Task: inverse folding
């Protein structure tokens, strides 16, 4: 069972097994994919709480005694984000690197202080417009910024600041 795969085909086995022939060999199928996830083997239960077989890239053999359905198991990729302060007066030095699991939403507080400025949010290019808006506390919600694992590249986000303004009143 593809168990949520977004492309590819599940390997099929048309062999009839009997008491004298009950060893099954599972071959790794690289064309079965799920966006934002990597293949993590097969399991006898869809939720992964059964017996595990055939991790990524492995071929495995096991014995069966009854009809068996194997479910693809998926683990979210870990992706990396470089947060750039986009300001000479901000601390700490940028970029600040963080890692996130795919399909999980995160509340990200601003990792920088920039005296006299308020964080409006994050742009996906230097001096760009806000793509991910910050709330009043400078926190932004981020989820699924990329499907590229951290080992193959990172996402770069750039702070967008606005100078604080003050009101002077005379009485």
Result:
């Amino acid at each position: 069972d593809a168990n949520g795969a977004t492309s590819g085909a599940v390997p099929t086995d048309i062999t009839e097994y009997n008491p004298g022939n009950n060893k099954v060999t599972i071959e790794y199928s690289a064309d079965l994919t799920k966006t934002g996830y990597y293949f993590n083997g097969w399991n006898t239960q869809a939720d992964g709480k059964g017996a595990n077989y055939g991790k990524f890239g492995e071929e495995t053999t096991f014995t069966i005694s009854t009809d068996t359905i194997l479910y693809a198991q998926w683990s979210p990729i870990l992706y990396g984000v470089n947060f750039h302060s986009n300001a000479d007066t901000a601390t700490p030095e940028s970029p600040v690197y963080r890692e996130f699991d795919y399909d999980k939403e995160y509340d990200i507080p601003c990792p920088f202080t920039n005296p006299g400025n308020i964080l409006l949010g994050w742009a996906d290019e230097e001096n760009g417009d806000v793509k991910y808006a910050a709330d009043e506390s400078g926190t932004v919600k981020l989820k699924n910024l990329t499907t590229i694992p951290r080992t193959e590249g990172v996402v770069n986000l750039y702070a967008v600041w606005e100078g604080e303004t003050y009101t002077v009143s005379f009485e």
